[in-house]
From TrEMBL:
Protein name, UniProt field: CoA-transferase subunit beta
Name of a matching Pfam family: CoA_trans
Family from the record: Belongs to the 3-oxoacid CoA-transferase subunit B family.
Native organism: Streptomyces sindenensis
InterPro entries, per database record: CoA_trans_fam_I (IPR004165), NagB/RpiA_transferase-like (IPR037171)
Domain of life: Bacteria
Length: 249
């Protein structure tokens, strides 16, 4: 991979790197990426800095970094991994608020919603039993809201309100969007801008966020892929460029 290729890194490829980094240091753990970009990111992590990472197709098959089946995961074992904290999910969010509460169920009042979505699914159990990160391909005030219409994934304030049984294993390592990377490294565990994707400004992020976001004085840029990582993304993991269909930049 030559220098000019590295200079032409796309927004989607920065997002892949940001998602891959969510699994750095996790150890041997089951990665459950939901979406094209997180899936490419998890496979990149497996091929580079996290060789012991277990990958799943989202159902019952363990897959290799090339996507080929390499094992079967019985549902009872999958549940054991979930309840034992040996799984790191990267979910989507129709809404997410400043404390990391996530909504994928409905928009509007629960009694008569304006829009019905996926439903609560496994979000509460995921967030209370194992690390959960989020991938949001279109950062906007409609997604990053002051307060979610319904809590599916449990945020920091909701976990605190429920007490020690809810906070014991609760962890939201990061939120990745098409604009940047976010964490909750603040005194009240509200959302903080951790890095900007190159070409994005802090003003853009603030305008696209529907709540007061903590923005440090000096915000770094999201790290770019090395030539070797870029070659893996483009030539081995995702030659069909599914990543661009989610981000498109």
């Amino acid at each position: 991979m030559n220098a000019s290729a590295v200079e032409s890194v796309t927004r989607a490829e920065y997002c892949v790197i940001a998602c891959a980094e969510a699994w750095r240091g996790d150890g041997e753990i089951l990665a459950s990426p939901m979406g094209a970009v997180p899936s490419v990111g998890a496979r990149l992590a497996r091929l580079t800095f996290a060789p012991d990472l277990l990958l799943t197709d989202g159902e019952a098959t363990l897959v290799g970094a090339d996507g080929e089946a390499e094992g079967w995961l019985p549902y009872r074992r999958h549940l054991a991994l979930v309840t034992g904290g040996r799984r790191h999910v990267m979910m989507g969010a129709s809404q997410i608020d400043r404390f990391g509460n996530q909504n994928i169920s409905c928009v509007g009042d629960w009694e008569q919603p304006a829009r019905q979505l996926l439903g609560v699914r496994g979000a509460p159990v995921n967030t209370l039993n194992n690390p959960v990160s989020y991938w949001i391909p279109r950062h906007s005030p409609r997604v990053f809201v002051e307060r979610v219409d319904m809590i599916c994934g449990v945020g920091h304030d909701s976990a605190r309100a429920a007490g020690p049984s809810a906070t014991r294993f609760h962890r939201i390592p990061r939120v990745v969007s098409d604009l940047g990377v976010f964490d909750f490294a603040t005194p009240d565990r509200s959302m903080r801008l951790a890095s900007l994707h190159p070409g994005v400004t802090t003003d853009q992020v603030r305008e696209a966020t529907g709540f007061a976001l903590t923005v440090p004085a000096d915000v770094p840029y999201t790290r770019g892929p090395s030539p070797a990582e870029l070659a893996l993304i483009r030539e081995v993991i995702d030659p069909g460029r599914t990543r661009d269909r989610e981000v498109g930049a």
